[in-house]
Amino acid sequence: SILAQGSKLDIQTLTPVRPDDTITLTGEVVDKRLEEDRRLVECLVLVENQHGQTVARAVTVVCL
User: Fold this and answer.
1) CA geometry: angle at 49 spanning 47 and 50, to 5°?
2) Which stretches does DSSP call E strand in the chain?
3) Virtual CA dihedral for 27, 35, 10, 8, nearest 10 degrees?
4) Are residues 36 and 43 in contact, defined by beta-carbon separation less than 8 angstroms?
5) Rounded to two decimals, what is the model's pTM?
6) DSSP string of 11-27?
7) Are 55 and 16 in contact (CB under 8 A)?
8) Helix or strand or coil: residue 5?
9) End-to-end CA distance of the chain
10) Is 59 within 8 Å of 16 (Cβ atoms)?
11) Which residues lie closer than 8 Å to 4 by C-beta, 6 or more apart?
12) I need a labelling partner for 26 at 20 to 30 A (CA). Which of 10, 33, 42, 54 fits?
């Protein structure tokens, strides 16, 4: 869960998102690791508008 201890979300907004925009999120796993007794998965997430422009990018670490 993104709310679990050890999880984090860092997001960078690149351009404004307008109220009438349609956004799409895509992501990929970039790392999986074991830290102490926690299984962590790191993902890169891209947010694109209907024109294919990247409006935000995020790196998230999810503790399983």
Assistant:
1) 140
2) 8-13, 24-35, 38-48, 54-63
3) 100
4) no
5) 0.81
6) EEE-S---TT---EEEE
7) yes
8) coil
9) 7
10) no
11) 62, 63
12) 33
Identity of the amino acid at 1: S
Residue given tokens 């670490």 in the structure block: 61
Tokens 């860092």 — which residue?
Answer: 10
What's the token pair of residue 38?
């926690």
* Residues composing the chain: 64
Which residues are CB-contacts of 51 (< 8 A; sequence separation ≥ 6)? Answer: none
C-alpha closest to that of 57 among 15, 5, 3, 7: 15
Q: 57 and 2 in contact (C-beta within 8 Å)?
A: no
